[in-house]
Amino acid sequence: MGAVTERGQLEQILALQRQNLAPRLPPEVVQSQGFVTAEHDLDTLEQMHDLAPSIVAKANDQVVGYALTMVVEAKRYVPILTPMFGSFETLQWRGRRLTAIPFYVMGQVCVAPAYRGQGVFDALYRGHAASYADRFELLVTEIATRNTRSLRAHERVGFQPLHCYRDSVDEWLIVAWDWTLPRR
Q1: Is residue 183 part of a domain?
Q2: For helices 120-132 and 148-157, what crossing angle results, to 10°?
């Protein structure tokens, strides 16, 4: 587990992402295993990485899981996330305006099928806490409400719901994780 250190890892992230995009998966896999929605390109990942490196899990030098770091300044690189970022202006966390709290966004998290159920997902988030807890108070992300596997996994890590909304793509649940709070 560690931060992205080379361009080849970003290319491996893109390959794993392509394999897990909802439109490319059979409906039964979408339902049981989850999926990713946004599709990035190498330039976008490089720009995001330059601002704050993502965390990856590797096996034999192959990326088998990733958790994309997306600081607020990177929102211009992924236009599909504009509605999510817009909603942040109206949200509160524990009585404070979300935008007044140092936070960043989990741009996407994915684990290769052969490595699911082995703690990789949780380890990716522990890697984020270890890398970014001194810089941020909160980690925020959104999950398609039909992605039940992802919803359960994020709840297990300690994410709590903030807001639900619908856009032209799906219905989304915005969740936040304060890693200073004990896990449930």
Answers
A1: no
A2: 50
Number of domains in the chain: 1
What residue type is assigned to position 106 of the chain? M
Q: How far apart are CA 10 and CA 4, in angstroms?
A: 7
- 161 Cβ contact list (under 8 Å, min separation 6): 173, 174, 175
Helix (H) or strand (E) holding 10: helix 7-19
Pairing mode, strands 103-111 and 138-144: parallel
Per DSSP bridges, beta strands 55-59 and 2-3 are: antiparallel
pLDDT tens digits, residue range 118-176? 999 999 999 999 999 999 999 999 999 999 999 999 999 999 999 999 988 789 999 99
Q: How far apart are CA 74 and CA 110, in angstroms?
A: 19
**Average pLDDT value for residue range 8-13:** 97
